[in-house]
């Protein structure tokens, strides 16, 4: 994807914090015209101003809450974002010397389930064997499953034990504020991808779409945002991105 964009003269800025949105009033209506990004990771040095025909803000709940200025909360569609609460999430990775998701261990050719799996009535909401779902990155010859489990809410911990397998490596990442809390009636506060601010669009799994706060929801929100952008902003395919 990066190569595709760069071939079309797009610029990609990594590890650059977005400091603020830049907007103006045009015919009594607010319109976003760009953003300011930090040139340095730390410090208060002047940032780089990027002008844009449209801005798609794709982040999590806490990210959009920090970025939206107080002035824009006068719009109910945006003020509702601040009513969304977050829950802690723990991501656990476990490397084993065998295949955890193997259905029939007598079948040598079948190594496990190549899919994202969901659990019912358990602390970990979903899990996957990364060595199978993303072998280009996580498969290592001579080693087994790299199981990744997402525990949410993360206020509990889970022990993973299997008598036939040995855990040879593990990693735990804790996020204090991650997914939005799926409390009763909270869906009404999830914003649409199109905002009342001209040229400002939202993406992220917390936004209004068919799925919960998840990878699938993030992809769905991105597609919905792209559809809105293509309708609201004329695209000149002969112009550099």
UniProtKB/TrEMBL annotation:
Class in the EC hierarchy, top level: oxidoreductase
Pfam families listed in its UniProt record: Amino_oxidase
Keyword Oxidoreductase in record: yes
GO MF term (any one): 9,9'-di-cis-zeta-carotene desaturase activity
Superkingdom per UniProt: Eukaryota
Membrane-spanning parts: none
Amine oxidase domain sequence ranges: 2-159, 172-229
Keywords: Oxidoreductase
E.C. no: 1.3.5.6
PANTHER family: PROTOPORPHYRINOGEN OXIDASE, ZETA-CAROTENE DESATURASE, CHLOROPLASTIC_CHROMOPLASTIC
Protein name, entry field: Zeta-carotene desaturase
Source species: Galdieria sulphuraria (Red alga)
